[in-house]
Amino acid sequence: MIQDGQVVGALRSSDQDTTRPKVAHGWDGLWQWEQNGVQMPYVSIYDYLLSRGNPYTAQLDDTYRALEARMRQNNCQACHAPDNQGNSAQLEFFVYPNQALAGRHDIITQLNKNQMPPKNNTLNLPAGISDPTERDLLIKLAREFETAGDKALTWEGDNKTQFQYPDPQM
């Protein structure tokens, strides 16, 4: 979906094009390398996404790690992952930090409704989260993540350098 000239969302079909050729990608065999004196890849959750000066990056990292660990204990990643084991027609990923950040408000909505996992899911997981204490903890962690995400993204918006096209006369 494109809004105001920017991609704001995308959907994928559960049908795959079997006529599309597979592309074999080469790999140089290096798991790690050095780039500009820095060992790569380095562990990052939001460092690559946010500006260096963003004062909320560490808080966002910490709240995502806490939420993700708890979601893992509740099998959220069984469905909310790229392999789509739950065969969902519409799926949000939470295993990737950037996608969890984009879905931070939806996470709270779904936890409040207690409809995840849905009834009659293909993985035979029990519907909803039956333990109210566990669900309350997940909601608390999700709200902390949401707040940190809102602060970090607000800071980005307030401190973003506006792009200017180069002067063609120069």
Descriptors:
170 residues, mainly alpha, 38% helix, 6% strand
Task: Give a brief rundown of this model.
The protein is mainly alpha-helical.
Can you put this structure into words, describing what you see?
The structure is a single chain. With 170 residues, this protein is mainly α. It has a domain at 53-158. It has five helices and four strands. 18% of the residues are buried.
Described by the principal axes of the CA atoms, the overall outline is globular
Order of helices and strands: EEEEHHHHH
Describe the strand arrangement of the main beta sheet, using strand numbers. 1-2
Helix count, per DSSP?
Answer: 5
List the helices and strands and how they pair.
Elements: E1 2-3, E2 6-7, E3 33-35, E4 38-40, H1 57-73, H2 76-79, H3 97-102, H4 104-113, H5 132-158
Antiparallel strand pairs: 1-2, 3-4
Helix pairs in contact: 1-5, 4-5
